[in-house]
Every structure is written in structure tokens, then in C-alpha cells.
């Protein structure tokens, strides 16, 4: 199984300087997820806001290269992800095999 990440070249502040007010932002992207002709399919992709670019201990597949069994759901992660999931993982409460989920600190979506 493989994982991969692409990061913005430098940190983006989400708090206005000299303030406790957050900065608003929006984004959009266009993508296609195509199942390979042979071999296992990928599990999707995610847009992530995280305090670190270190995902070396993350698992592939259901964990989308973001988390592992030890840190999944841990509030110390401080990670927000929008997942575009293509495989239903019943153990993670996925609603189906083709959904968008909002994830906080783990791959069990708080909203799908």
C-alpha cells in the first residue's frame, strides 16, 4: 500500500497578527479518482490542515496516510481533514463507499 502527501511550501497563518481573530479562507479543487484496472483500489484523498508535515507513522488505506491505530481520534493531533473516501470502512462508521467526510483528529468523520 502507498501513501503520499503534497504540502504548501510554507506555513499559512490562521490567526490575524496581533489578534485572536481567525482568518477566513476558501479553496476549491478539481480531481478524478479512477480505479485501476488491476490491483486494490485506493481509499481516496483528503484536504488537510495540520500543524506538522510529519506523517511518517501514518497508515495507508482506511487511515488515508494521516493517522494510525495509536493516534486515530487523539485530540493532540490538531488535524482537520476533508476526506473524499472511496471505500466503506464499517469499523470507521463510513456511510458508504463514495462520500465526503469532515474529520477532526481521526478518520471517523464528524459529518458526512
Automatic annotation (TrEMBL):
Database matches in PROSITE patterns: LECTIN_LEGUME_BETA (PS00307)
Lineage of origin: Eukaryota, Viridiplantae, Streptophyta, Embryophyta, Tracheophyta
UniProt protein name: Putative inactive L-type lectin-domain containing receptor kinase III.1
Keywords, ordered alphabetically: Kinase, Lectin, Receptor, Transferase
Keyword Kinase: yes
Catalysed reactions, semicolon-separated: L-threonyl-[protein] + ATP = O-phospho-L-threonyl-[protein] + ADP + H(+); L-seryl-[protein] + ATP = O-phospho-L-seryl-[protein] + ADP + H(+)
Record domain Legume lectin: where: 2-112
Family: Belongs to the leguminous lectin family.
Pfam families: Lectin_legB
Single GO molecular function: carbohydrate binding
Amino acid at each position: 500500500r502507498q501513501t503520499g502527501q503534497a504540502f504548501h511550501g510554507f506555513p499559512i497563518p490562521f490567526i490575524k497578527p496581533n489578534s485572536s481573530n481567525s482568518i477566513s479562507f476558501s479553496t476549491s479543487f478539481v480531481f478524478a479518482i479512477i480505479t485501476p484496472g488491476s490491483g486494490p483500489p485506493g481509499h481516496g484523498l483528503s484536504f488537510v490542515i495540520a500543524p506538522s508535515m510529519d506523517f511518517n507513522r501514518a497508515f495507508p488505506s482506511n487511515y488515508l496516510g494521516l493517522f494510525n491505530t495509536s493516534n486515530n481520534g487523539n485530540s493532540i493531533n490538531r488535524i482537520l481533514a476533508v476526506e473524499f473516501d472511496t471505500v466503506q470502512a464499517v469499523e470507521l462508521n463510513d456511510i458508504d463507499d463514495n462520500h465526503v467526510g469532515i474529520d477532526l483528529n481521526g478518520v471517523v468523520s464528524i459529518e458526512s
